[in-house]
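Now for today's protein.

===
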Amino acid sequence: MKQVFGIVRYNFFGFFRNPKVIFTFLLEFVLSFLLTGRIMIVMETYDTPVQAIEPFLWTFGDGTAVLLSSLLLLLLFSDLPKMTPVTPYQLIRTTKKKWLFGQFIYVTLVTILYTVLMLLFTSVLCMQNSYPGNLWSETAAMLGYSSLGKNLQVPSTVRVMESISPYGCMLQVFLLLFCYSLTLSFVILVGNLYKGKTKGMIFGLFYSVYGFLLDPKVLAVIFHKEDYEMYQMNVLVSWISPLNQAVYGKHNFGYDALLPTIWQSCLFFLFFLVLLAFLALFKMRKYQFEFLGEKA
């Protein structure tokens, strides 16, 4: 493990000075600012506070927001696996398997950092009128118990507020967003291993678009379902779409027994991650490294 973490440590050399990394995090802040605008309007209009992490919950309780936030990872991880001038030396001193495990850990740590920054950015943007107590705010009650939340497309729902506390909800939303982002990162890594550099971005984009296009209304037309059968389409999409698996509000809170629970979604992502890791390990046995036009 010492060799594996040595590879991870070297991958982080110059990480925060990398223009691509800086640009990605700046875009992440801009995206957080744009997505939290809906909550900030309500706070200013009605002069009501929010609980510190509620902006994060409302911002990423929506499928489109989850998709937009994860797409920035296409830029951040476009060069996976990390090839550096030291890579030949690492491969001589270790094995391909250890080197790949180092890439896995590096991707996981960067994805955690990316998700934590999402949480911090949304909280800081609304901190002028927020409080740390573990109680739902007046703003949340307004959005959940009236048509205001629906009109502004803010996914603050009564069933969520009645079933869990803000910080408990934050942990689950964070976990779902992290799992989806990590799965996308592994898709990029495996795509680059199998098809070469930059091809992984195409696989990652396809993975994202697949979840976005799985719309219940589209499936209803394909399967000739009537309006009263839309519930069946909603349940189907909640199970087969990775993007919907990452949306907190589309889970079972004791009201919809057919929808997946939070932990079932985590198992869904875990299975997918194990499959991708296996495919990457399988490819590494015959993977040809290219350095300065030569193969190793």
